[in-house]
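To the wet lab folks,

You asked to see what we're planning to order before we commit. Fair enough. Below is the target structure as tokens, and below that is the sequence we designed to fit it. If anything looks off to you, flag it before the synthesis order goes out.
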């Protein structure tokens, strides 16, 4: 994801000021791969570890503690307790999106996110007073499965009037399904993503989304890593997010 590329670049640049380098391993979020990757990093002499969107399991936390290696969790899935956790702003962005949609008259809202995650909880709090229902599509599914499930949603008689997604990729999949079924966006369905990927500005209609201050967040990740190496337990500051309104959102369909 382009958003994470920006975060990583800023993190690497900031860590260079402290004379630290960066090693990168991708795991696809699978727990067994996360553990193997952790042991691989420890074997290569990693002095600290950042988990992006995967969290540190209890087993991983024990391995890190046994080696005296601090870690930082980035994203919604923080994992085991005992380390700083930095939000990438998804819940905060979801609140901005939900409030904006309510201001446009939307009362039937759907969310593409983890059913048990902070994004769903954040949207529930905003729409509880004004929405008849809040539907949730599990964002942990593969993108093809998300798109297929979105297609089944769109075949029903009564549709949500707006969709909030916790990633631009899934929001773009929703736009594609709408195009396939001749469902006008935003006249019939409004869509908001998260991340402000380059494609969000290139698709038709252009995608309303939530922009994350990636350079700021990357620097804060680096500073949290350095603080962990110094055994500084100061709480991590919140990251800035901004709602970017484009063509994919409009007043609720009557």
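Sequence we intend to order:
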């Amino acid at each position: 994801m382009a958003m994470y590329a920006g975060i990583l670049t800023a993190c690497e640049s900031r860590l260079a000021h402290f004379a630290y380098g960066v090693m990168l391993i991708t795991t696809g979020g699978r727990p067994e791969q996360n553990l193997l990757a952790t042991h691989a990093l420890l074997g290569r002499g990693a002095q600290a570890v950042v988990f992006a969107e995967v969290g540190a399991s209890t087993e991983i936390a024990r391995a890190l503690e046994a080696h005296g290696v601090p870690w930082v969790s980035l994203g919604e899935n923080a994992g085991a307790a005992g380390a700083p956790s930095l939000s990438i702003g998804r819940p905060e962005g979801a609140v901005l999106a939900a409030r904006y949609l309510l201001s446009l008259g939307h009362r039937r809202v759907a969310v593409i996110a983890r059913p048990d995650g902070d994004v769903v909880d954040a949207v529930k709090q905003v729409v509880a007073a004004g929405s008849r229902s809040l539907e949730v599509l599990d964002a942990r599914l593969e993108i093809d499965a998300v798109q297929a499930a979105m297609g089944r949603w769109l075949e029903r008689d009564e549709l949500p009037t707006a969709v909030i997604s916790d990633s631009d990729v899934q929001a773009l999949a929703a736009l594609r399904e709408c195009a396939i079924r001749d469902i006008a966006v935003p006249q019939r369905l409004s869509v908001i993503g998260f991340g402000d990927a380059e494609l969000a500005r290139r698709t038709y209609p252009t995608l309303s989304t939530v922009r994350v201050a990636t350079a700021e967040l990357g620097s804060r990740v680096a500073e949290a890593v350095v603080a962990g190496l110094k055994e500084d337990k100061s709480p991590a500051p919140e990251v800035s997010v901004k709602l970017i309104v484009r063509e994919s959102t409009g007043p609720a369909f009557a």
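Structural context that might help your review: The chain has two domains: 1-88+213-239, 90-211. The longest strand covers residues 108-113.

Thanks,
Computational group
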